[in-house]
Amino acid sequence: MNLSLTFLLPFIILLLTANIVTRAYDQSLNDCKAVAAQFNNTCSHGDYDTPSASMDGMGYETVTCENKRRCIDKNSSTLLADGTTCTWKRKLCVTCSVGSNGVTKIRVQTNNLPNHCVNSITIKAKNFDYEVNFNSKQSYGEWVQTISMQNQLNNAVCPIRKNFDRASLGLVEHGDGESENVMGITINGVAFQFANQIREDPVYPITEANEQPLDICLGHNQLNSVSGMYHYHDISPCINPNFLDGKTMSECINNPVCNKSIVEWKILGYEDWKYKKVIGIAKDGHVLYGPFDDSGQLWQTDNVDICNGAWSENNDDYFYVGTQWHPYSAGCFGPYNFPQNNGLYAQCSTNGMDQYINNNSEGGGGETTLSSSTGGMNQKSSDDNSNIDDNSEGGVSETTLSSSNIDDNSEGGVSETTLSSPTNGMDQKSSDDNFEGRGSETTLPSLLWTITLLWVMPTIE
Quick one: average pLDDT of 168-177? Predict the structure, then answer.
């Protein structure tokens, strides 16, 4: 092998292993199925086209948490005979179809139980089941609303209940009414919410006596309200199933690294996913991506609108992205304009976009200490109107998954899972990386190998 080839070989390998994005998602059934394949489904979905007939009858994944003497809601979990091991059944089914009007729809069915341990003890299984037009076509410049005043901006981003045209999106709720306030569902089946009842960011709130502590997955339930709905208030690092390996479940304020900076903590969960990784689907049917773009860089303030909505390079595809600042993911349903260009920023967080404008996205919000009296989370929650204290418990070990009935080979699945029983949906194809060439993360290794070999062969002696 000559010297020039030796010198260029590292660069050739880099090209061959790079994740090359070839196109954005469109409104087709194929692309809908490509997104559905990113989810950790547990149902017998066929070719991502067969929804579960019911939540009760859906296939499941058993999540096991050790050293947890008090389980979550007794109707949703089982405390094993050793008195320290808690298990529950996680259920998720994401499928696609084409309606009589020719519009592709995506359907999400989840019991909202996570695939990891939790700190709270009163989380309950839910029946969230809705369908919505998949990735509705948007036109750049045709905004839902042009924001030009501070109160318009605050009213769009800060409330927990969003005003949007459900009928135009084809949004139909089949399950619990509480699903109406969900901003999106993650690939592990857990709900996203990015605001609370007093119109503030629950992660970095403005007022005191505000927010119940979050766990290290940046989630909690509705302050032990009757609903028991677990949800993430940020782009949870635990969406990555490997993140909790070697860590002990606790409140964020009891974990020194999480407590020092939630912003830095959550980004750690995406170190394995430094590309435009699908992490969920927004309630309006648009795709949710993680905090890194195609080039492996964190999204910047000039990339997004007020909802954290972004556009593909040709302005043909609209989607939501994870950011360091509030609202963290889909904070409203766009597209909107870019009022930050005129110095307007939502006023519902101490970790807002304005903290990242002049310092290359190394924002001051990332240095906020959670236990401080002016912005911490160790306060009463305002997720709902309950006044019951959280009876969560610490010291829970990391999750292990042992049951069958889980969709196979889904990226983001948990490595400890064992699979069996092909009659319960286990024999379905589910590959993030190669779903019949569909989707926006298609790689071209074979093409690169061909080009490289044609170029290299003549130089080999």
Answer: 92
Q: Which of 182, 173, 126, 439 is nearest to 333 (CA)?
A: 182
pLDDT at 304: 97
CB-side exposure of 460: number of CA atoms within 13 Å? 7
- CA pair distance 377, 260, nearest whole angstrom: 12
DSSP classification of residue 3: H
In this prediction the pTM is 0.79
Find out whether 169 and 136 touch, Cβ atoms under 8 Å. Answer: yes
How confident is the model over 280-289, as a mean pLDDT? 97
Other CB atoms within 10 A of residue 79 CB: 16
Q: Provide the pairing of β-strand 104-110 with 399-401.
A: unpaired
Query: Exposed e or buried b for every residue in 236-264, given b needs 16+ CB within 10 A?
Result: bbbbbbebbeebebbbbbbbeebbebbbe
Is the distance from CB of 227 to CB of 178 less than 8 angstroms?
yes
Query: What's the pLDDT tens digit per position in 428-438?
Result: 433 343 343 34
The separation between the first and the last C-alpha atoms of the chain, rounded to the nearest angstrom, is 6
